[in-house]
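Structure ticket #2291
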Amino acid sequence: MAWPELVGKKGREAKAVIQKENPYIDAAIYAPRDAIVTDDYCCNRVRIFVNCKTSCDYENATVVQVPRVG
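Resolution: structure written out below.
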């Protein structure tokens, strides 16, 4: 499952939509655009990549990649 319509939205808006549309997601994780992440697949996780560095406000940062389960 993916949410292409969330690109350009604020991180908190994206997280709310994801958790509303898929109640099985118990880990909606913010990550900076250039974060190095593991390749393991997790059916109850979504990474929300935002235009932000490690010390900024992820909830108000802009989503820059399509959030998807995994």
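Closing remark: Residues 11-21 form the longest helix (11 residues).
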